[in-house]
Design a protein that fits this description.
The chain is mainly α. The chain has ten helices and two strands. Bound molecules: flavin-adenine dinucleotide.
């Protein structure tokens, strides 16, 4: 047990359960809680669903997300309740999209229930999306949006600004996005690094904060023990190596299914 615990902490793995929990909470709670979705909100929702349907790795190539995307595509306005119904019926029809009821977080598990979980899941989901977008192993390179290197960041920006339940987080994120010129990103690799850097800025700001899980301290990621070559001898980042590291960690092929270590 003790060995399991420590090996869990020293690994830096990506788990399917965490990605699915984040996706499920985003769809069934955050989006579904909106009173009405129209105008800019509808645009944000469409962009998000297009990116998810193309790049989120559902098991057995389930078309759940494509179905939801295609229904929403045809609407100008929806209530959160209508969206919730759509998600529910689609989940029933396409069953099993997820493996049963919501499961315990693994990589995003906090030392108590008040720590980590969903916000952690949302971060790793967006890192996973930027990376696999950059790896270009997607099924649908013909879609015009996939030629725009900012497509995934735009979807994230719209999602966070419109649906993310933590209003303070959203305000911070949009300010930072503006200041660090999120939409000036010129390649898909730059988009991966933009999000990595943005996340590290958030980690630095929250280091030592009340919200920090004492068993999962905010670090400048990745830790030196996980990627010794990611830092130069003078401790500055070697971005080429960071990019390489992120492209392995967040690659679909690295996803762990269900087991703890
Ligand atoms: P998280 O920061 O959630 O990270 C999740 C996992 O991502 C880590 O375990 C690690 O494996 C990996 N990771 C960490 N850093 C990087 C990186 N730089 N690049 C790639 N992968 C990385 N909370 C607040 O209290 N105030 C805020 O203003 C705030 N803003 C937020 C904005 C956004 C957009 C999001 C998604 C969350 C925000 N949060 C904020 C929540 C906060 O960032 C953490 O998600 C939460 O505290 C849980 O932290 P965690 O230890 O699980 O690690």
């Amino acid at each position: 047990e003790e060995q399991l615990q420590s090996s869990k902490n020293i690994n830096d793995y990506l788990y399917q359960i965490d990605l699915e929990n984040a996706l499920r909470y985003s769809i069934n709670h955050e989006i579904s809680l909106m009173k009405s979705i129209d105008g800019e909100k509808m645009k944000a929702l469409r962009k998000y669903l297009v990116v998810l349907a193309t790049y989120f790795p559902l098991r057995r190539n389930n078309v759940y997300l494509e179905v939801i995307r295609d229904v929403v595509e045809k609407k100008n306005t929806m209530t959160g309740e209508e969206f919730s119904q759509l998600a529910k019926t689609t989940e029933e029809e396409m069953s099993p999209v997820y493996s049963g009821a919501p499961r315990q977080w693994i990589g995003c598990k906090g030392s108590t229930d008040s720590y980590r979980g969903y916000p952690c899941g949302l971060w790793i989901m967006f890192h996973m999306l930027t990376v696999n977008f950059a790896l270009e192993r997607n099924k649908d390179v013909t879609q015009t949006f996939s030629r725009n290197p900012t497509a995934v960041l735009r979807a994230m920006h719209g999602y966070i600004g419109t649906f993310f339940g933590c209003a303070d987080c959203a305000t911070h994120f949009l300010e930072m996005a503006d200041k660090n010129k999120i939409f000036d990103v010129r390649s898909k690799d730059e988009a991966v690094l933009w999000l990595w850097q943005a996340h590290n800025r958030v980690n630095a700001r929250l280091s030592g904060d009340d919200t920090e899980d004492p068993e999962h301290k905010k670090i400048q990621y990745p830790a030196a023990e996980h990627c010794p070559v990611c830092r130069h001898v003078n401790n500055s980042w070697n971005e080429e190596e960071v990019l390489r590291y992120l492209k392995v960690k967040y690659d679909y092929n690295s996803i762990k299914f269900d087991e703890i270590s």
